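queue> pop job 88
queue> type: inverse folding (structure -> sequence)
queue> payload:
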């Protein structure tokens, strides 16, 4: 599966077009999250990438996470439906649709604006340094998975 590059304006345009198709009443095709919870879930990945949140995992936990999950997260193989997620990504409370959507849109635009040079070699809280391509796969694959979950 060839994944789009989140640093390209055409990809950002495509992602934002899909985002705009999602409405507060949009229901998931699988899983338990509401649409607002899904946006909040996606925002956690950006919060972590932008240093606004930490997993608080120690060095041993990070070693095993990198060993066990990195290939799945930054590889091109799609995520399975109803797959498990790390506890930090679980959203159990209700969220405000417009607030979470606006935060997500801001992150998507900022990621494109900062571009490859900002993300090349940037440290991931869970996986250590990643290439810009790995960051792009991580972001795009996660967005695509959940957009598909909600039918766009």
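queue> result:
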């Amino acid at each position: 599966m060839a994944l789009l590059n989140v640093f390209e304006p055409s990809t950002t345009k495509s992602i934002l077009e899909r985002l705009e198709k999602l409405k507060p009443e949009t229901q998931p095709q699988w899983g338990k999250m509401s649409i607002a919870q899904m946006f909040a879930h996606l925002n956690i990945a950006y919060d972590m990438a932008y240093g606004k949140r930490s997993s608080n995992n120690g060095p041993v936990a990070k070693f095993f996470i990198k060993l066990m999950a990195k290939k799945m997260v930054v590889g091109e193989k799609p995520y399975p439906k109803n797959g498990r997620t790390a506890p930090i990504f679980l959203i159990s409370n209700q969220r405000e649709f417009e607030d979470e959507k606006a935060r997500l849109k801001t992150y998507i635009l900022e990621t494109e604006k900062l571009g490859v040079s900002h993300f090349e070699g940037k440290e991931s809280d869970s996986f250590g340094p990643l290439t810009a391509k790995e960051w792009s796969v991580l972001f795009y694959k996660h967005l695509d998975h959940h957009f598909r979950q909600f039918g766009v």
